[in-house]
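Hi C.,

You asked whether I'd gotten around to modeling the 549-residue construct. I have! Everything is below, sequence then structure, no commentary in between.
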Amino acid sequence: MSTIVNGAGKVVDFVDQRITASNWLKRNLRKVFPDHWSFLLGEIALFSFIIIVLSGVFLTFWFKPSMAHIVYEGGYAPMRGQGMSEAYASTLELSFEVRGGLLMRQVHHWGALIFLAAMSAHMLRVFFTGAFRKPREMNWLVGVTLLFLGVAAGFTGYSLPDDLLSGTGLRIIEGGMLAIPVVGTYLSSFLFGGEYPGDDIVSRLYPLHILVFPGLIIAMVTAHLMMLWYQKHTHWGGPGKSNENVVGAPFFPVYVAKAGGFQFIVFGVIVLLAATVQINPVWFWGPYDPAVVSAGTQPDWYVGFLDGALRVMPPLEFEIFGHPLTLSVLIPAIVLPGLILTPLALYPWLEQKATGDTREHHVLDRPRNQPVRTGIGVAFITFYVQLWIAGGNDFFATILNVPVNWITRFIQVGLFVLTGLAFWVTKRICLGLQRRDRDLVMHGRETGIIMVSPDGEFSEMHAPLEQGDAYSLTWHERQAPYEPGPATDANGIPNPNYRTERRRARLSRFYFGDVVQKPTADELEAAHHEGHHAVESGHEHDELTSGQQ
């Protein structure tokens, strides 16, 4: 053992003498990471991506990215003698003839689904807690970019087997491109190598899937981790926690040991899913045929909302200078993703503009303390889920035994009504929770002890909260709406920024106009004084009752 330790010490000394890394290691190995389950969502995404890369390397040894036509003579008997592309034939070979091939295919597919689900949940956690605020706006942009790249990588991989299901998805994408004015036909011809489906789409998607998108994801993940490491880590508020410190465990050895164990848990869950739950059985669909459309099938969940948008969009088409403009395809397939991604990417600056808050924040918000932001997030989730349901309207119509048009009409109305209702209900719930927190701090918790006053009035005794619990409910700052200055100064000279200030004040009132403010020190003192007086009165009443007995 001593020999190993001495050998390691010599290696460390050799490296340190040449790159002087000891000071850097001492400083960074003790970096503090907060200990909360919500921070594990990003780690799930990272570990899922690692297993995606490992399984993808295995698959590249056998997959043939070619649309050359062959007659299948492989190990899957029902397909023998049938014409298909080399891509589809190699997928069947991976599934039935390569040892462990089907497991690796399913590990790759399940890993992609969990990667995108974990990344989405991580982004929602960051949004609802305000972790995107200064100085982390750029990291939020990196996260949005990663989400887009993950969807692109998933869709390109989903399209590679050249089966009937993936071909139908490509047909939908081709229809979206053709709806783009002026350049749509050129884009389609370039991507597919001529008239759809062409002979080049698989060979063109393959390098995008195995090189371009993974390389960009690795670059974005590296940038994300570098910024995360350089900046302070966010943490939840509470006693001893502030914007000036980080409370948690050191990176080494505590965090490294926990993250290492958690990585193998994620690997194990993905492999267990791959071994027990079938996904994307391409042999059921058969090779792609442009004349055939698969029925009762849906795309992977992360692009299901686009399919749903296409299904619920009313038929709208105009002619401009003799050329058709198909809005029923252009809006859901092209415009809608832009309308979602652009505000999502710019939201840190939009909220900063509305609230006027340009300070650095390292303590996370409780979602209830930001009712408008929380309402916006829930409204977006409601909007997305409705489109996702619309993507399987035929499936739900079959399960519920109702006409498919009923579901379509319901979602067309719900996209506006239910989304707005979700915002309003969520905001009211947050305000109600704020009032409850305020009452707890001012009057204490219920004890279940009922007192009877001399005049027969019943009341319940309240016990004051522990100091740490009270601080956890009141550590956040008071949020007052911005008030614009006067339209003119004392000399009657108009304020050139008055209109801008009024717009900012309206936005600020939208965010903070209904917020239930935490109690002030004077309010707490008055409430506690009244509480002590009530308790003393209760004790006097008990003593009087005992004396009478």
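If it helps when you're writing up: Residues 535-549 have pLDDT under 50 and may be disordered.

Thanks,
B.
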